[in-house]
User: Fold this.
Amino acid sequence: MKIQDVARKANVGVGTVSRVLNKNGYVSDKTREKVEKAIRELQYTPNELARNLYHNKTNTIAVILPDASNPFYASLVNEIEKALRVQGYKTMLCNTVGEKTNEELYLNMLQRNMVDGILTGTHTLDNWKYAEIVGPIVSFDTPPLSETTPVVTVDHGTGGRKAAELLLESGCRHVVQFRDNVFDSFPFFERHREFEKTIREAGAICENYIMERDCFTEDFYERIVEDCFRKYPDVDGIFGTDMPAAFSLKRALMMGKRVPEDLRIVSFDGTYLINSIYPTLTCVRQPIRDIAKAGVDQLIRMIKGERPVNREIKLPVTIDIGMTTMTVR
Amino acid sequence: MKIQDVARKANVGVGTVSRVLNKNGYVSDKTREKVEKAIRELQYTPNELARNLYHNKTNTIAVILPDASNPFYASLVNEIEKALRVQGYKTMLCNTVGEKTNEELYLNMLQRNMVDGILTGTHTLDNWKYAEIVGPIVSFDTPPLSETTPVVTVDHGTGGRKAAELLLESGCRHVVQFRDNVFDSFPFFERHREFEKTIREAGAICENYIMERDCFTEDFYERIVEDCFRKYPDVDGIFGTDMPAAFSLKRALMMGKRVPEDLRIVSFDGTYLINSIYPTLTCVRQPIRDIAKAGVDQLIRMIKGERPVNREIKLPVTIDIGMTTMTVR
Assistant:
């Protein structure tokens, strides 16, 4: 079934059918009705590829993330898909799992008109690669990718400070934070800095356990948590994202430690993982739905040719008191 | 930058440039070199939309799932994305969250040439809607969608029987299984049937706790688990997928129950959630990576016009003995 068949049936030109389908240009009501009748009778479905080429739009957004099975990214992409769907966009899921080549390949899709925009939560490429890309990009928790690329992040500084305060108030004197080995241009670097600063200013010891980036397997978490307890057998407090926090809790209980008496734990992220665990974890929670919505809103502004609201949108974090700290608030 | 610019620069016709780009039709080596030189010098990037229209291919697969943040679906889509990427396909993520209209909308994409095929892990539509769709579709754990649609599933019957045996061997006499309210045409119906049958044949009591379908929030799991313990305060064994199993464990510990002395738990799925929890859960594990690969392989055979290997591919499950049962094997 082709557009030509519709034109023949309605006894009009192909251009007229095209104008009706694309809702642009002048078509008289009578002609429109004729065309619509022919479309109905022939059960004609327009070829979306042809429509896309005509409009030079795909209504598709690439969402680039390291690993879609990690609870944080799984929740983020889920909320992004919902927010995009409401706006009439489809979600192209792109895992990078730390491979540079994938990220470059995905960026290239924007230039080749395969997607209308990019939301990226990963950043392994040099900035100039992003600067070269002409088109709407919004990133999550990365350094500024280019002069025109907005970033959506959370108030990591406050998150780090509050986590440190929760551990200190619980009596911690020797804590570990699990952290990535990243440059200080990443927004979450602030979380690690504020955490360490707050602990040190209170006269306590802060160890930094550096994790490889973009590793998300259970084996990886088992291994680093075991290694951490071997390196620092006397720690009385732990701070990390949900996965290392949950695996630290599991390991501590396996070792016969009492939580929170012997060891206090504060996690960062607050995904559903936290709520599935007992004792419940005290956590600094990221507003995942708001992060997704803010990113989608910014991107759609850019696609429409409007200016992004801000170069950086910083959303607030909240505290959930669980059973792994001893503070009563 | 258009294909016309390349043609002018190389001093050839547009058709020649198109033949070089699409690698079909005859072009002499000398002409090909001229065209490739012009492409390089102009830094021409082909418009993928035009290419797609020409080939009538998008190299994109729609993956339709109820909720991409649920640990099982998050792991499944993650493995699907990797398996598709290796084969040169991109992943369009489509959540349905139980809305019929979404599933229909997504199916329609196949007809409108927006995707080359569909992998679906959800099924809320009547079968005739699927039967109407002309194009490659493979489903996970659904009834046969049409005469030509293959299904990838696991050996649910064995899974249910083994779970029941693990609970019986641990001394259970009164167990609950969390289950969906679905027709017996769903492959996982077999799991519930075999579980119940095995428990009853041993002279023990099996309660069926019916869950609403397509609910995945933490609040939902908290609520049903609380309700289940209220309805059946004397149960000594629980069987459910990872989320209800994990929330049952949490609730039991909060209520002061000893696990496994007072309550034994076996979960079904074996996602990373299971490994993040202490005491570790005994589980019947689905081979998520193999499920993803089998689905992708079948679909790509169909896209290439080959016949699917089988109407139903049934993969084996494995048992992981954790700390929530008392069997020593």
In short: Chain B touches chain A through 55 residues (CB under 8 Å). The radius of gyration of chain B is 25 Å. The first strand of chain B starts at residue 60 and ends at 65. Chain B is about 45% helix and 20% strand.
